[in-house]
Amino acid sequence: MAMIEMKQVVGGYGGAPVLNGVDIAIDNTDIGVIVGPNGAGKSTALKAIFGLVKVASGEVLFEDRPIANSLPDRLVPMGLSFVPQEKNVFTSLTVEENLEMGAFIRRDDIRDTLDSVYEMFPPLKEKRHQVAGELSGGQRQMVAMGRALMSEPKLLMLDEPSAGLSPRYVGEIFDQILKVNAAGVGILMVEQNARRALGFASRGFVLAGGKNLFTGTGKELLADPDVAASFLGGHG
Amino acid sequence: MDEIIFLVNKVVISGAVLGSIYALGAIGVTLIFGILRFAHFAHGDMMTMGAFVAFLLAALVGAMGITAPVPLAFVVLPLAVVITAVLALLIDRGFYAPLRARGAKPVTLLIASIGVTLMIQGLIRLVFGSGTRNMYLDIEDKIIFRMDFGWLGGTRPLVLSQPQILMFFVTLACITGLHFFLTRTRMGKAMRATSDNLDLAQVSGINTQQVVTVTWLIAGSLACLAGTMLALDVNLRPDLAFNIVLPIFAAAIVGGLGNAYGAIAGGLLIGVTEALAVFNWTAVLRPFAPYLPFGMELPANLALVPTEYKLTVAFVILVITLLWRPTGIFRGLST
Hints:
The structure holds two protein chains of two kinds. Helix content of chain A is 37%, strand content 25%.
């Protein structure tokens, strides 16, 4: 039994479907990476899990419960968390308030979680009373990830966490993702930095035209000459 | 000395009173815009509605033979606030929520709110008639405090009416309360978060429906306070606050839409500037009259703007602010 499963999901934003039968399944120990060319439906697949895109047919199961077309205010308490690619911080709120908003659904003491997020991203502790809109791109990404972790999710979904970051921050964000996963949180992410992300992915999904083109472990996909030829480019 | 007292009376006090009313109204407008992204044109009439609710309750309490050292309309204010807040919420559920559920555009909601304006005014006229009413019951007097400045060589007193003093404290209490609510409470922060980024608020699991409810309750409460205070300061009419809805919007925009602190600053700025603009400077300049060059005389009225054109002041400030800072003084939302 996988923690999150998409079975033959078809869906989109109302017009022609963007997803034409996507299959994704990962466990809570997995790092799942969705790669593919532009317009393949990678982000849409994540949004379909999170109820932000209409699922027309197919199944979305979280811990065997159907969650297709559920809204985030039901999904977050179940243990799903999502970091959008853009506009993923509350720019007029302080860093700490951003993190508190991630824990909105919790009624218990959030101080331990807050401390662990600060431990994970030390720069945030220093700037915790600063408005998030004043932070650099990399620090904003930390706030966005921290916010998503505040609900203590079982599954963390990230939409291109490395987009627009300097190489130094890309490494740092990827390291933190690995750490979060080691703590028992399943990861499902979309990544443009395909070669690098597949290098640490336990599950890889190559989408094209809203369908699975290849599915396998990260290593298998990297080693597959077809994947390399069709998508990763000819560098080996 | 008299001239200074006159200036304080006419500019500082009346400007602050008007500014406080604008501010309380503009906070509601700005919060609704921040959360629901539409210009709630009926906000002025929500203020009028609140004043009539207070009037009705005061008349009821007065009929029971109860008296108080402050106007009864002020005594019943807490209950009037609750009733108006619930009415505001019902208006949302009845008119705006169904439109939102169908994905109506902000312009559609704006037009709907103009409809609500007409409806509220019509209902008030139907029930209370179209005449002007006194917020004070027959047995009550408007207490006016006159502060003597004879010891400073003045002959005129500084005049403050009881509702003006009450208004000052009520506004102060509201603003302080709102500040603590927005910065210290979970729901207040969630409101700011929703206003900042609705999509992310939903993704974070914030119950945005609940946020909408709280927004209407706050906007309705402040509208009732502002409307009642305004009616106590002047008097009660079915178009009481409809006439000031434009400066209220100007205040919200000048302060930066979506920003409650901006609305307060914008309200006070416009209130005081209006008072300054219609102020008759002759009164202050009279002591200098003997020093004028031969043949020059002080005109009887030296106001920058005739009182009838007071409304234009808000727009002039609005235009200047938008040219200088397109998203308002406190950097509000731009849409």
